[in-house]
What does this fold into?
Amino acid sequence: MKEKWISSIMAGIYIAMGAMVYLSISDKLAASLFFATGILLVLNLHNRLFTRVCPLFAYNGSYRPGDLFIAWIGNGIGTALVAILIHFTRFEAGILGRIEEIVIPKLADSPVSLTILGLFCALFVAFAVFVGGIRQKQGTFAQIFYVWLFITAFVFCGFEHIIADMYYLSVYVLNFGTSIGDVLKVLLFVTLGNVIGGIAAGYFVQNLERESHENRK
It folds into this structure.
């Protein structure tokens, strides 16, 4: 159990690290490219990132419902720790403008929009996990390329990743404050979208592999 919590907290820290780099770069494409560093750390170190656990939960049952809960809470703790530490540095002042640009539209968004944007994010992350795993046989470079491609795509499009959002919201609340209702709205509906998209992708890939196996018989 202890290892699960540590792995989940570390995954949140990695995503927050990628988000910090993203916030530090003004060019949207370049920022999207470098956000992927956090996801690459998670995948290569096999940490329990919520949006990685969801598709694998559906795909092969390697995770249980309780693991989803631990991953979500642990990831949130990791992102909050980073936000709190950065709050006491000069680094934070340089990203507050970007934080406002990113968080204010989320807080004003509708539940339906947040859910759908979360769903598409989860699809990109899930396929990064699955395609990256398949391409691993072709070498590390091929695996990194495909993971980077999928992650860059969802970040560039502005789809909603709940763990990245936890970091953005933590920084925003520490500096500007907001209503608990707006924060809970974002957390709830982005999580819902991430769960739906991740589990759907997991079952989709599972069925594809089953059909492929049956056709080879």
